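Lecture 7, part 2: worked example. A protein chain together with dinuclear copper ion.
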Amino acid sequence: MNIHTYERLWLAGAMVLIVGFVATITYGSVGLGIVMIGDDEDVLAPGEIDDDERFADPGVEQVGENEYEAHVVAMTFIYQPDTIEIPAGNEVTFYVTSRDVIHSFTVVGTNVNTMVVPGEVSTMTVEFDEPGEYGILCNEYCGSGHHDMEAELVVVPEDEFDLTELAVEAPDEVGPDDEIELSTTVENGLLDSLDTTVEVQVGDETITEDLTVDGEETEELSVTVDAGDLGEGDHDWTVTVDDHEETGTVTVSDETNDDDANEAGTPAGGAAVTGASVDVAGPMAGGEGA
Ligand code: CUA
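Predicted complex, written out as structure tokens:
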């Protein structure tokens, strides 16, 4: 049988295309590891999200020297957390699950993109080399607020990244003979210990104290200031730890003393103060003498 030369070329070309398509699909599913999420992977029923310790308080945690995990919950029409901060140059594995319907977790301008199916946990490991800010959005139609469903991914330089949480307890109102106790709690979520400085400003008094918080630990630091030194009126306070800040106002008022007549006899001079407390005069003199 004689096959015309052009016919032969067309047949050969078609064969090359077929082999090429099969090779592309094979490479995509085997070589790149692109798979549909399935029942054999991590499952989590939407009703169990709040009981699951990974997702009950979603966020970023450090799991190894240069390894982090980020747990994210998608729901109509938000992501929890809505701002995810990760360090550049580190491996971050995202675990994303849905509380209700199918969403997606798409980091705009990157190839980070997965469906988020209720009952399943989508997993992706990524590494961002450069700091930057990225939008996260949902590209699976999920309801009337679909177009508003967004979050933010912030990649910060590695040396600026921390998992520090700062909380301050301070009184709203004290009498002129009372002491103002500012109790600062610093939580260090990183594995390495945190060497930092706690700066407490009350009125025009500034107290600084060095503080070391071991990895995955919490430390408390109490600072007391005599209300009498500040005088009557409103005094703003600020507690700063690295780039974290808490602020508030304490009112020194004579009326408070009258109201709390039974507290008028509290020992003065810091007798009732715990060991961690700092006397205002000490660090002030030390800090400014240098
Ligand atoms: Cu969620 Cu669209």
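The first strand starts at residue 43 and ends at 44. Residues 77, 103, 138, 140-142, 146, 149 surround dinuclear copper ion (CB under 6 Å). Keep this in mind for problem set question 3.
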